[in-house]
Write a structure and sequence with these properties.
The chain is an alpha/beta fold. It contains eight helices and seven strands. The strands form two sheets. The protein has a five-stranded parallel sheet, sandwiched between helices. Strands 1-7 form a two-stranded antiparallel sheet. The protein is globular, with a radius of gyration of 17 Å. About 40% of the residues are buried.
Amino acid sequence: MTQMYISSRERFITFEGIDGCGKSTQARSLIERLNNNDIATCFVREPGGTPVSEEIRTVLLENRDERMCNRTEALLMTGSRAQLTKDVIIPALEKGEWVIADRYTDSTIAYQGGGRGLNIEWLLQLNDFATYGTIPDLTIIVDIDPEEAKRRTNESPPDRIESAGIGFQEKIRKQYKELIKLFPDRCMSIDGSSSSDVISSSVWDEIKNRKFIYEK
């Protein structure tokens, strides 16, 4: 007999990791599993998700001759996030939907903090302002070696941020590990070198263990 689950209440779950880690695949896999259990969901990805946020995404990721300064990058990222949070995430949670995000606040800490070297405390305050204090219930960091991640993404041309190279990704990965120490109740790491099915099962087990869902 197939097990079916129901939601205890709305939840906000984010997937994080370096470029090419497989987080997008896992976010969509979770959406499918929740929907199969008749749990209403809302999927978002960053940067983007609203007309304004998509325009900002283009500015952020498009390769250009002019060098974008690190503070501009951080402000654009959080500006996109503010619009997404106000227009999509908060309304979805208020309707009782589960919001599953492909990146959120921790990407700014990892990329603009760990990667670009901006002050972490300042970025945390900036995130809080941009998100109206909206905090995920669970953040899943898909951890993988940057060299392996690069092999996975070699088929597509890199965007402006991906073009920063392996050393940049290593700094980001290190900062993600620091985030787990900083927010141990919310953040967890999953081995991204495992098969997609194994990772998906681990994510589902974590959701059950946290009693976000329970069996019918």
